[in-house]
Recover the amino acids of this structure.
């Protein structure tokens, strides 16, 4: 095996590993429920009190982030290209209806809708503040609704559409859940008839683990306060979470990493 491939393999941490993830939210920390980012109340508070995580209430301001003219959480200059890569996957799978969960500011979804105006799109989040704000600004979206991914019933994702042509998009939301919660979620999706899922996720690598450790050390020395904000996992941790329910295709492009799942039965 060439040296570059060996290094890549080692960097991918080729074994299951899940670690707790901590972030610094500065003055907004005081508003988080239980001092953690792990509830709808905390996400609402973060969106309302931290400029990097806020969702603009005016269409003009929101478009600046959605068009990558200003940088916000999950919304950067590469977003239109990421949307292109996702659009290609949707087209290859013959998808005509998208149900995106935990959309936050929905910049990626805006770019996907812009590239595919005929795609039937529902955006959802469990944070009432995000949903109310998006309803005002994301006027192209066919439907914007409150939806808690811990719901047992995922049939709202399938309303009025054949399951074969429908896909659930999970863009950087895996971080919000424990492995057991994710296992239960995939079972619930499968039981509700969801056939296609695209997971776009951060994968924990050796380099990422090291830079996280150094960053945390420096910030601790500066006296910054860390807040629990979910879980990070290595690539190998993911597939067992949906076990025998879904067939897995790994998605590894220059801009997105993740998994495309297709129901086995
Ligand atoms: C890390 S942010 C990702 C936002 C967006 N997808 C992106 O990549 O920029 C996680 C989002 O998931 C939402 N979320 C967390 N737990 C959720 C749940 N149980 N059901 C639905 N949404 C949830 C939060 O409100 C937040 O908007």
């Amino acid at each position: 095996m060439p040296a570059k491939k060996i290094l890549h393999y080692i960097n991918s941490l080729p074994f299951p590993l899940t670690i707790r993830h901590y972030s610094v939210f500065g003055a907004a920390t005081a508003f988080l429920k239980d001092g953690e980012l792990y509830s709808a109340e905390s996400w609402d508070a973060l969106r309302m009190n931290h400029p990097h995580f806020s969702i603009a209430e005016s269409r003009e301001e929101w478009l600046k982030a959605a068009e990558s003219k200003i940088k916000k959480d999950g919304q950067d200059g590469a977003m239109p290209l990421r949307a292109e890569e996702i659009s290609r996957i949707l087209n290859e799978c013959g998808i005509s209806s998208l149900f995106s969960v935990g959309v936050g500011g929905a910049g990626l979804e805006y770019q996907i809708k812009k590239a595919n105006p005929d795609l039937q799109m529902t955006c959802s989040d469990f944070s009432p503040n995000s949903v109310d704000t998006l309803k005002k600004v994301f006027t192209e979206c066919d439907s914007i609704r409150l939806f808690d991914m811990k719901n047992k019933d995922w049939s709202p994702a399938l309303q009025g559409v054949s399951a074969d042509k429908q896909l659930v998009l999970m863009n950087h939301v895996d971080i919000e859940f424990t492995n057991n919660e994710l296992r239960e979620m995939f079972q619930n999706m499968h039981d509700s008839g969801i056939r296609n899922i695209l997971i776009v996720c951060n994968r924990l690598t050796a380099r990422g683990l090291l830079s996280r450790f150094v960053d945390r050390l420096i910030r601790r020395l500066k006296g910054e306060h860390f807040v629990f904000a979910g879980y990070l996992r290595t690539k190998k941790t993911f597939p067992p979470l949906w076990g025998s329910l879904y067939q897995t295709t790994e998605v590894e492009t220059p801009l997105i990493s993740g998994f495309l799942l297709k129901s086995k039965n």
User: Anything to note?
Assistant: The CA atoms of residues 50 and 81 lie 26 Å apart.
